[in-house]
Amino acid sequence: MRFVKEMDLKRGMRIGRPIFNRKGDLIFDRDERITDADILKLRSLKVMGIFALDPGEPLPPMSAEEFEYEKQRFLNVYALRDEMKEILVIHRARKLESIVDSIIAASGGFKKRIEFPQSIRSRDEYVCSHSVNVASLVTLMGSRLGLVESEKKIVVLAALLHDIGKFVVPDKILEGETPEETERILFNAQDMGFEMIDNVLPEDVKVVNICINAYRILRDHRFLRKSDVQKPNLLTRLLVVADSFDSMTAIDASGGKDPDSYVVALRHMRSCPEVYDMKVTDALEASIEILKPGTTVMLNNRKKALVTALTGADVLRPTVLELETNRILNLEEQANRDIEIVDVVKKLDNRHVVDR
Question: How crowded is the C-beta side of 157, counted as CA atoms within 13 Å?
Fold first, then answer.
């Protein structure tokens, strides 16, 4: 399954993930083949694209629990967008608590790794989609790390509001700007956003402090500076990991940046333990599917391999079948410790993406 941008949609492509509207009605189900009329409908809805199955690719299993989780994620994105618009007008949150409760209920009960595909994000919902994803991730990881209910509510609130400053910046302001100027505008917007959080939640300094500290840690990491945030608490460290992971793997709102794979994102986080707390990163790995059997990967010896089994504690060191040599390699074994997975292979060959 791979993401196909709206401009590249073709008649006959098979939908891999369900698509819902703001009422929770199913618009397109999995394994449906899209028509020319469907493509026009998707464009009218400002959908950036679809997750499409390759020709001959079997429909991956999806439990009723995962289907409901996917539906709730769509509903929460729409609800958060409405709530943010309300906050901008009346400077108060009316339904934020119910969105928090919905996310915790939808994300907090999984006992095993779940599929966490990037949501399909329309251009005017990018910030809200990101925030809901981050809130879901902090809930999943927080459950693994034993957060109590009150702690979950605080960190989910922080996740939902941490990017509210970007929500107030119209796309038109950024059109034609240089990357440096865009960064300056969004930087100033973040400061405005923290003030808004403080106004909306004047009695809860924990939430705004989590947002500010997570932002400072990631800002300093981006500019290769040592962070001045000393001993960030667990809730801040959760937000740092969730925010970064979703940002790295998301479909860029402009359509100009291809997302990193989950493997690349996890490898980056492991390489920066001073930024990304290892216990939190381990909780991320234990919460969502990073790799699974049947995935084709590229090894650091420049050979492709097929993941056959997740055999050990490290998800990035599975048992693989090296396609060129037909060798079975357990990457956990000492003899194979110099072999690593570099990335997933998004496409095995040059097949057309539409069955003829």
Answer: 23
Query: Tokens 């960030």 identify what position?
Result: 232
Model confidence pLDDT, tens digit, residues 230-284: 899 999 999 999 999 998 988 665 555 678 899 999 999 999 999 999 999 999 9
For residue 347, what pLDDT is reported?
54
The phi, psi pair for 340, rounded to 5°, reads -130, 155
- Distance CA(213)–CA(254), nearest Å, equals 27
The three-class DSSP label of residue 74 is helix
Instruction: Report if pTM > 0.90.
Output: no
Q: How many angstroms separate the CA atoms of 285 and 291, rounded? A: 10
Cα gap 24→145, rounded to integer Å: 31
- DSSP class per residue in 253-269: TTS-SPPPPHHHHHHHH
What percent of the chain clears pLDDT 90, i.e. is strictly above it?
48
Reading the block at residue 198, the tokens are 């403080």
Q: Are 343 and 261 in contact (CB under 8 A)?
A: yes
Looking at residue 27, the DSSP 8-state letter turns out to be E
Output the pLDDT for position 246: 93
Q: Does domain 2-53 have CATH number 3.90.105?
A: yes
* CATH of region 123-287: 1.10.3210.10
Asked whether residue 81 carries a pLDDT value surpassing 70, the answer given is yes
- For the chain, where are the E strands, in sequence order? 2-5, 14-15, 19-20, 26-28, 49-53, 296-299, 304-309, 319-322, 327-330, 341-344
